[in-house]
Amino acid sequence: MPTQITKAIFPVAGLGTRFLPATKANPKEMMPIVDKPLIQYAVEDALAAGITELIFVTSSSKRAIEDHFDSNFELESSLLERGKHDLLDIVQGILPPGVSCIYIRQKSPQGLGHAVLCAKQLLSNEPFAVLLADDLIDGGKQSCLQQMITVFQQTQTSLIAVEKISKEDTQKYGVIDTEFPEQPIMQIRGIVEKPAADVAPSNLGVVGRYILTPAIFDLLEQTSHGSGGEIQLTDAIAKLLKKEAVNALQFKGKRYDCGSKLGYLEATIAYALKHPEVSADFQLLLREFAACTV
User: Fold this and answer.
1) Rounded mean pLDDT of the chain?
2) Burial grade of 224 (CB within 10 A; 0-12, 13-18, 19 or more)
3) φ, ψ (nearest 5 deg) of residue 187
4) 105 close to 114: Cβ distance less than 8 angstroms
5) pTM above 0.70, yes or no
6) Helix or strand or coil: residue 14?
7) pLDDT under 70: residue ranges of the chain
8) Which residues of 100-112 are buried (b: 16+ CB within 10 A; e: fewer)?
């Protein structure tokens, strides 16, 4: 029987400095795209893929994330008393029954690899998913993680989501080396964190969705601080390649880099244009705005 993946790690301890002052008191993962925070979109990606245990690696300033996925008795009672059953359903439906949340602190920001390592004690020698809320991915009918789990069930090997990037952006990504860069699923030969454009092994950049085998934990423990003075997950994956196969998937869908201001604004526009409540009026507003700026 193929191994099933039921646990996902959400590294949410970052400081969000690119969005200051908005993130001074509010976690960047709680910034809304229309009417849902970024972290909820990532969680919905995981839930659609059958994940039932959500592991949030947080910091002391991220209490709002825990509150968001908890029940709010006062709010729910108020909505019920006022007959706002549609809003009550939305609030109570953030997490479906049978899904649990676990929160663990990353005491200091030491990189994505360190954040994943913080969750080691919560996994029992089993493969798991990692989702970064900064990467909002609209997979259409099938979420990005659903696509990845379908592949994993066939291969039972670690899998990384990748997409084509421009050469000038290679210094923002982990970049993979592969023999068959045009294939939707490909075996990775190497991976480099934020290479210069002239030495990047391909134009395929790693985005914030991973499925990893438990072998990654021992390698993370042996990984020294790398790019940016942090423990890079990419460096541990490079070591994992020497022990077992790691594949990459060019997923179907559109990714929005909500770790950048421009990407965040692009996502807001894209999701507003398809939101059933505001889509039509928002299109009119955009046309009016465009006419005024010509």
Assistant:
1) 91
2) exposed
3) -80, 140
4) no
5) yes
6) coil
7) 1-2, 226-229, 293-294
8) ebebbebeeebbb
What is the structure's pLDDT at 223? Answer: 80
Looking at residue 226, its pLDDT comes to 63
CA-CA distance, 159 to 152, in Å (whole number)?
7
234 CB-contact burial (10 Å; exposed 0-12 / middle 13-18 / buried 19+)? buried
User: Helix 144-155 and helix 38-48: axis angle, to 10°?
Assistant: 40
Q: At what angle are helices 279-293 and 261-273 packed, to 10 degrees?
A: 130
The per-residue pLDDT for range 50-102, each reduced to its tens digit, is 999 999 999 888 899 999 999 899 999 999 999 999 999 999 889 999 999 99
How far apart are the C-alpha atoms of 102 and 81, rounded to whole Å? Answer: 31
pLDDT given for residue 158 in this prediction:
95
Contacts of 122 (CB under 8 A, 6+ apart): 7, 55, 102, 104
Contact 209, 146 (CB under 8 A): no
User: 97 Cβ partners below 8 Å, 6+ apart?
Assistant: none
Q: What is the H or E stretch that residue 32 is in?
A: strand 32-33
First-residue to last-residue Cα distance in the chain: 61
3-state secondary structure of 97: coil
For 288, the enclosing helix (H) or strand (E) is: helix 279-293
Q: Please give the pLDDT value at position 209.
A: 96
